[in-house]
Amino acid sequence: MERTVIIAGGGPAGLAAACLLAKDGVMTTLIAPPPIHDPRTVALMQPAIQLLKYLEIWPADLEAQTAPLRKLRIIDETGALIASPTVEFDSKEIGLDAFGWNLPLALLLPALQNCAQNLGVRFIEGTVDSAIPAEDHICIIFSNGETLEAQLAIAADGANSVLRASAGISTDTWNYDQTAIATSFAHSQPHNDVSTEFHRAAGPFTTVPMAGLRSSLVWMERPARAAEIMALDDQDLAAEIQVVTHGNLGLISAIGARKAFPMKGLTARRFAKSRTLLVGEAAHMVPPIGAQGLNMSLRDAALAADLILGNEDAGAAAVLTEYNKLRRAEVLPRQQAVNFMNRSLLEGFLPLEAARVAGFTAIKLVPPLKRAVMRRGIAPVRNTPFAMRETPVGETP
Fold first, then answer.
1. Cβ pair 176, 263 in contact under 8 A
2. pTM tops 0.90, yes or no
3. How far apart are CA 36 and CA 191, in angstroms?
4. What DSSP assignment string belongs to 137-178?
């Protein structure tokens, strides 16, 4: 029996799933609307970089255009009654040359698209209107009325997933009183491969190294303040960034394209049902803290491929049940940790602030705990998908 899969969504998670399945001979179709420019970068940790190696698109032309993340620094600037100590995580402490690399989506997406095309993935430009699951297949209905059948549908179609709704999977969603601004900027002093996360009362202000004298920025603010920032001209925005970074990166200039995103969270109550499997933001959403979002989404894609390749029927109940169990076991605790961190900054609630301070103090003072946090932040403790395994998380020398 030939395994057949339809993927809805052309983001990194959907494309990665398509590449992994096609690489092992699964007849794969990807349905997505035309791509739009996205100015964001993504910090891919070592297991995600290994996935790109497995697909033979790393290092290729990507590494020279990206920057490694060798150190991660967290600085408390909340102005709260009690403050966390500054904590610096160094990849050498766990035997790694770098935690990962920071890649512009404008580079990553074309690389994955080219890989998928070379592996024989069938691309259909369009959108999914609905899906009807049956005993041995699922029928995908396009917005123009055309239909296509496969054993399994992978929903990589985002937070408002049509496939998730068609499968009857409900979600828990919540909003944060925050907007994230994504942009990039040039600076006169080197970043030294250090990503810095300033914890402020409205959320983190995070600079992440890019190639050369340039960094990407995710600036989380209250919505009204974010609207003011988005309305600034480039010169005034550079001055604002200069103030928040305290001149640590020198003179700020050459602001890149910017985009604002309202912050919200989402968890699907099941990650698989009715010959439909959820990956990425169709299954879970978290604020951009600790580089968890896309790294979790790529693990979704890689585990989905492992389970599909282990069964003649890609949409078999056993595949869906195991996927739901394994992914929820990893995703839910990570979501809870990110949610706690974000709310401890936003809500000004003393017990939450005290818990955050206690946690960072323990991490700073207890080296084994610090190393454990770094390892857990990079990769799951168990059930690492096959395509992500070759480069293990290092042990302390």
1. yes
2. yes
3. 29
4. -EEEEETTS-EEEESEEEE-S-TT-HHHHHTT--EEEEEEEE
